[in-house]
Every structure is written in structure tokens, then in C-alpha cells.
Amino acid sequence: MRTRQNIFQEIDWVMVATFLVMIIFGWMSIYAATFDEAHRDFFDMSQNHGKQAMWMGFAIIIATAILLLDHRFFETFGYIIYGFAMLLLVAVLFLGSEIKGAQSWFVIGSFSFQPSEIAKYGTALALSKYLSDNALKFDKLQTKIVSFAIILAPAVLITLQPDVGSTLVFAALTIVLYRQGLSPLFFNLGFAAIVLFVLALYLKQVNIEVSENWIIQGSTFFLIGLSLIALLVYINLRKKRGSAFVIGSTYAALVGYYFSVDYVFDNLLKLHHQNRINELLGIVSDPLGAGYNVHQSMIAIGSGGFSGKGFLQGTQTKFHFVPEQSTDFIFCTVGEEWGFLGSFILVSLFVFLMGRIIWVAEKQRSDFTRLYGYSLASILFIHFFINIGMTIGLAPVIGIPLPFFSYGGSSLWSFTILLFTFIKLDSERKFVLR
Amino acid sequence: MNNLVYRKITVIGAFVIVGLVFIARLFYIQVLDESYVSSADNQALRYVTKYPARGIIYDRNHEILVLNQAAYDLMIVPRQVGKIDTEAFCVLLDITKAEFIKNYESAKNYSQYRSSIFKKQMTADEYSRVAERLYQYPGFYGQKRSLRIYPDSIAAHVLGYIGEVNQANLDNDTFYRSGDFIGISGLEKQYEKELRGGRGREVLMVDVHNTVQGQFENGRFDIEAKAGQNLTSTIDIQMQKYGEQLMVNKKGSIVAIEPRTGEVLALVSSPSYDPNLLVGVKRAKNYKLLAENDSLDPLFNRALMAKYPPGSIFKIVQSLIGLDLGVINENTGIICNKALVGCHNHPSASNLREAIQMSCNPYYHQVFKRIINQGKSKNYFEDSAIGLAIWNNKVRAFGLGERLGLDLPSLKSGGVPDVAFYDRIYGTRRWAFSTIYSLSIGQGELEVVPLQMANLTAIIANRGYYITPHLIKGLTGTVDSNFIWDRHDSGIDSAFYTPIVDAMNWVVEKPGGTARKARIDGIKVCGKTGTAENPHGKDHSVFIAFAPMNDPKIAIAVYVENSGFGGDWAAPIASLIIERYLTGKISDSLKEERILNADLISQENED
Predict the structure, then answer these.
(1) Is residue B184 in some structural domain?
(2) pLDDT digit string, tens, across residues A210-233
(3) pLDDT digit string (tens) for B500-509?
(4) Which of A107, B291, B334, B456 has its CA 20 to 30 A from that of A397?
């Protein structure tokens, strides 16, 4: 083994710099979002921006501490952290505090944190550790089942809180499985299911009145269309054995799925979820009710124009038209005050950071580090996708923070830990034996 | 395994695609679609109209006739109205729930986002009570307005009133916005452009709770309201007030003019009303009461609009035209022949002065005959027509039959008949002097308004000219500027006025003069009584006068309806006003008391 150099020489400073730019940009946005003349002081601890500054200080200490840890710590304690997180997730259902309708917080004095943050980290470590076992073959069904179980266990517990946003984060970890060989069919089916779901919701609105007693419902078009396709496929494949059975059962499954959408939508989803989905799809428009957040958020972002209104000049965010403007809707402040240019830079920063993580992950000799990199990128991606998507009306409103930007200590620290664990692991790549 | 490495491309590709979709979407809503900018402004910016203070009107001695008092409109932005305690709000505003709903709905129908008036013109007291609690009611805010206030409650007909613009105003003049005030009558209407000033605007930032957060961009887009210009009137508050007091319980009017300048010192129409009644929200209700429920028609400005025959006073005009045409001279004597036209008992006039002093009807029958039939045509009818045309021109030069150009709207011109007028009635050459002779003594088809009589008096006082009578001297402010008014000549040599002025002095001062009641110790008053025939009842008492005789400071016409002979009521009223104006006191308090106590309206009703 070669002599250990100063670890700071091996660090990927590009990622560190990106991290610093993001948290500073984020802090400025929080300062602007909560700005008022009476509290100009950057470090006013009664204000969000003051507290965030303090948390940023801690975040840097945590980052440094992680860099100084032995790199084997993460792989060694992967399952333990995962197990500990699961315990917390169970405990929070009984002992936690309910904030905004979700039983997802532990409140200890003035400090509160969500065990789901630890669960993300634990799951990323555990999944990476499990899949990096050289003896394992991902082709085996058992491997797949265990992998899914590692992801599903925390997801189910979090759904019980319920916290849809955090649940979705775990869904993103399937990207890691995809890299390990999970068939694209899995994603295609998922995508098809979403398309069919949306189609069903749209067609539900269609009622063509031909005459007084004859109203053609949207589902009629679906059935006619699907039957035609089935017929064409059958004509082409009828010489193959068993094709009639396959086509018939697929047809039945699709029809069954189609008609279950109504039931799922109306009975399994909460009213506010139904409203948010309807709003997103443009089926209903209620800018004062369910659509208020998105409506206000789009006004704030849209009014920023090309170059923005200028730092501290945003009226929509500063005057509380946009809800949650320093947490989930922090992007509105960026959009309003920095305009398209600022938004472009922010989106680019994220895409760049996620891309770099994947690129760096692929350079690793250690499978654990590579898999962990994919986990990290997946988690960042789902936050980025949902958070920005909802503020510009492309994704449903789901309470989920924008990494490194949103106000909040536990979110900032958890992303710092996630990112710097990867930076640490990567800094050791030359010393890892295959 | 190896081909799995290429899946990193798919993953990175997915990240990039999502990033690009986001950027495209952001480009669309931030750069291409402008509607978000206006939505943002609508929500976060409140455009508050700053209404200008309307110009103040002063009297000739810089005392205030009309000024402004603060009032507040309660504005509503329906979109911003949150969940409020409607019942408490109704109690606070002193309105019913039905009114609340009605006002709310109508505001909502106008616009969800733009502000409209919820409750109009609350007094400063009312509003301060509401303002304290307004923070509980997002979507509502107060807007300062100004209402007129008349400290002396006088000169309603002169000053007029203001009200909110109507659709016609909005259509005709783009200056106005809904909710603006505009002068509707009187000086308020005449000098609207000077008085109204210019609206300003303030752009404020409000938060989601409708609380003002300060000026938008430090007031860069604010526009200061431009106060209206102040005007100085020619009215003398003291005289106006005194005139209105003297006319209490009498129908009629008083017009007093400073002859040298044409400045109207007082313009009284009785019965009048308190101008404060037609201010603010109570205007509509009170206007209805005044217009419909008052048989005396206090809104009618008799001084400018009531047409009466001039009566005997017209003999002065006939004398001057006769002298000018040379058909008489100051020594012309004519026998009082009651066969021509009725007359009272008096010795025949041996000269013009006596004729005026005694107001001899047959004398003027003959003078008018000489004016009309000068023998310019052999045809009697033709000759009359030629004569009438000449006469008509001369009469018009005295401002009779003409709108006098006074700076008030709804001024009537009266009527002086011309050839075409009689041709229409009788047919061409179907009429002659014998048809129209009642004009000779100011009766018949002649019609004048009191202002014209006062103006005629000013012409005599000036010995031959008048300045367009007016109520506003000019603008008052840091720099005063006076308006220029035209001088009009009567076209009659000033020397001819001497016998007229002498005779008018006799009317007041000589024993047997018809206006002895107008005499004032120490002041030479010149006057002439008249009786305007009234086919509907008792005749109207008329008196004109000017004083002092050789340096006239005031020319006045007084009309008292249904009070009979001019000397009885109109003459003493005129003399009281003259004396008080010239000396500042009243020497004959009995005379004053008699007038102040007289109730000619109830008396008329009893008759």
C-alpha cells in the first residue's frame, strides 16, 4: 500500500466548489425571500437567513469531519445505519410530532429532524453495500427481490406517515438497479402505466352528446381504439402459437387497469392529491384553491423576465404571495429576482453536479463507491425534478426540498453528508484494491 | 456487464433532458409569456389614485366661499378579500348585510383584481373609526377624497355643485376616470378646467395580507396630484350674505355690479338653499327633495333665468334711443294723454327729466311712436318695420336680448322682438306701431332677466358702456393673474345720459319721486322703479339703482315677485344694500327691520 498523501489533494474540488456555490446561492435566496428592512443583518438569528448561515457553518464542519473519517466506515456501517434508520422510522410513527399533516418529525427541544433523511442515507449505503458483493449476480431473482426490499421497506414506513415526497425519493433508487442490469422494460411499463393513467383521467372528462339519449363517454373511444390495435396485432401474429392467449390477456389487463384508474383515483388518493393532479393536468383550474401555490409560484417566476427583478427586489416572494417561499418554493425567489439567467444557471448547476457524480462514479474501481454515486445522483435528481417541476407546473405539488437551496438544517446537513460521503469515497479511489 | 456501462449515458442523458425541458419551460414563462408580469403587478402593486384638492374660491376680499374637507372612500379589491367576519364588518361600517352583499357583488362584477368603491365618502370621523380595524379585513383600504364645504352656506346658485362623473362625461372627455368629481353647475361647472387640478398616482407594494409594504421602487412611478387652481371671485361675501338675509321669505333676485369693472358683487336668487346640502353622498337625496318637493323651486336661478317684462324701467332706454335718434331732446314736453295709454294721476311732463321722474306712460307712447315711425317710408307698415329694426339694434346694444357673457352656465338671453318676430305672428306688413305700442312702456313681448337690468343700470352709471359682467376676477396662487373682460359701448353719446341720471336722482330724492323709500342720507342715489306685469298674479316689484351719483360704486337691480309696486319692497332692499356697502352701516334700522320681517311668500299664499 502506498503512503497516504494529504487526503485533500485527492478530493474532487469541482464538486466541492459546486456545493459551495449552491449553498451560497441558496442562502442569498433565503435572505431575499425573508428580507425585510428591520432585519438586514446577515446573521440575525431570529430570521431564517441567520439560522441558515449557522447551519451552513455546521454543514462545513460536518463535511470536513466526513473527509477525515476512515473511508471504510461507510461500507462497514452501511447496514447498521440502515437498520438504525428503520428503527427511527418505526419509532416516529408512535413518538414523532405531526407537522403539516405528516407524522414525520422528531422534535427535541428547539431542534427537529426527519428520520426519513437518515433513511435516505442509510438506504443508499445499504443498497450499495448489498449490490457490491462480488458473489452476487443481479440476474438472479433473489438479488432483485432483496434489492427491492431494501428500497421498499423505508418507503412503506414513510408512506405510513404519510410523506409522499420522501417516498418518491426511494422510487428514484431504482435508477441504481437499472445501472446494475434491471431491464428497461421495468421503466417502460412504469412509463406506460403513467401515460395510461393520465389518458384515463382525460378521457373521463370527455362526454360527447350526440343526441339527448345518446352520450358517448371517453371510455368508449379507449375501448374502440384498444380493440382495433388488438385486432391488427392478432392479424399479424395469428400464425404464432399462443398469440391469441397473450393478446387476449394483455387486452384484458389493459382494460382492467384502465377501469381501475377511476377507482384508485377516487378512493385511494386523498382529495388534495386528486386536486393537485387535476390541476397539473389542466383538467380543472382553481388558482385560488388547489392551484394557488403553483399559480403564485408561476407568477413569481414568470414575472422575473429575462434578467430578473434584481436582488431583494422580488415582490411576489418577499410579500408572501408564494407560500413556503424559503423552503419548498425557494426556486421562486431565484426565478423572480434573477430571472431566466439565474434559473438557467441553477438548472445547469444541478445537471452538471448530477452528471459529474455519475461520471466520477463510473471511474471507480470500488463497486460500492460507484453504486453509492448512482444512489446519490438518483436522490438529487428526484428532488431536483419534483421541486423545480412543481414550481413551474410540470410536476405535481409535493413537499420536497431543493437540495442545498431550501431553508432547513436537517435537509442541508443530510445532503451535505450524502454528497461528502461520495467525495470522501472518491478521494480514496486510488487506494482501493479491486 | 460491459454493455451495462453504457447505461451511464442513458442516466446522464435523462438528467440533461430533464434540465433542457426545465430550461425550455422557464424560457417560455419568463421570457416569452408576458402575462405573468402583469399578474404579478396586479397582485403586489396597488395603484392608489391621489385625488387633487379642488381649487378654493375666494371672495373679492380673500374670504373663503368654498373649500375642501377630507372624506374617504372605502375601496375593495374582491380578489384580496379573505375570510372576514362579515357581521362585525357590517356593524363597523353601519351597513346591512344585504348592502354588503350588493356592494361586494357589484365590485366583483367590475373586476376581481381592480379596486372599486365599496362605501363612498365617509367623513374623516367615520373613517378613522373604520381605519383602526381595517387590518382585520384584507382587500379593503381607504382612499382619501375631498368634498366641498361652504363655511357661510351662501351663494349656492353662484357656486353650483360638483358630483361624480357620469357616462356622458366619461365619453366626452378622456381626462375623467370613473369616480372623479366634476362641476355640474355654477362656477364649479364654468371653471371646471381650472378648479379640477390633475390626478396623481402612487404605486405601493402590498403583501399577501394586503398590508402596505412601502413605495414601489422608492416612488419612481408615483405622480404627484396637481392641486386645482384657486379662484378669486368678484362676490362680496358680506353683501351676498346680507342680500340673502333680506330676501328670506321673498321670491325674487338681487344682482349688484361694480359698474366700472363689470364685477358682480352679489347675485342672489330667492328662495335659495344651503349649498352644503348638495355635498357628498347626501346630494342625490337632497337634490330630489329640492327639485321635487319644494314648490318654490329653490334650484331655479331667478337672477339669470327668470324672464320678466322690464316695465317702466325700460323708459330709460326709450329716452336714450329717442335722444340719440334726435326725435326728442331733453326739453321735449308731451301731454299726459290717458286716451293713448293708461297712466296714474300726475301733471304732464314738461321735459324729459320730469317724464322719467313721473314715469309718464303717454309720454313714452309718443316717444316710441317717433322712434318707430320716422317717415322713412310712405307705407305705414313699412315705416314701422324700418323703425323697429333701428330700435331693435339700439336696444341690443344695451345688452338686452343678448346673453351677456357672464361666466355662469344656463344664462338666459331674454327677448327683444324684431321685425321677423312680428312677421311670424302677424304676417309681413300686417302690423304697425299700433300693434306694438305696449313696448313703449316696457311691456308686451319684451323679456329681460334680472342680470340684464343690473347691467343696464351699470351702463347708465358708466354713462354709456359696460364691461361684460363676471363672477371671477382671476386665478389666485403664487402668481395672481386676472382675466380680461370685454368693454361694450351702448353707442349713445355720454352727454345724453346727463338728463337721465338727473331724473333718476329725482326719482329717489324729489318729493313725489316713486322711490322715496330708497333715499339714503348723505349718499346721492339714482334709481328707477318698475312694475313687471304678471298675468298669473300680483305684479312683480322691480327697482334699479346706482350710487353715488357722480362716482358710481355699485349698480343694482332688485326683483321681488308678487309684491306689487316697485317702490314698496324692491327700492328699500336696494337702498339697504347700497348703504351697507358704501358706509358699512344701516342708518334707518326700521327700514331694515321691516324688510327682514316681511314674509311675502305666506302672504301671497293667503291672498
Answers:
(1) yes
(2) 777 787 887 888 888 888 888 888
(3) 999 999 999 9
(4) A107
